[in-house]
Amino acid sequence: MPTLVLASALARWLPDAGGGEYRFDVEAATVADALAAAFARYPPLRGYVVDEQGAIRHHVAVFVDGEALRDKSLSSAPALTPRSEIYLLQALSGG
User: What is the overall mean pLDDT for the chain?
Assistant: First the structure.
């Protein structure tokens, strides 16, 4: 089963994350399916990850098996395998 990993900047919004990265398995064949499973489990996460059109927000990076997704609409995302790892990273800015 693929694993979804939330970086600590996103995981801090989840009640049972406990600080730091948060990993959980999702039953999914695509990245969109994995995100849908995550949002079903943690509804508030949706607003931090996707915009009103369902595209990945500009400040969130998605990596699948170590490769960054370039298309925020997920149309070019690779199919997942049972051993896939989807990593969500919220870009932070500051000066």
Answer: 89
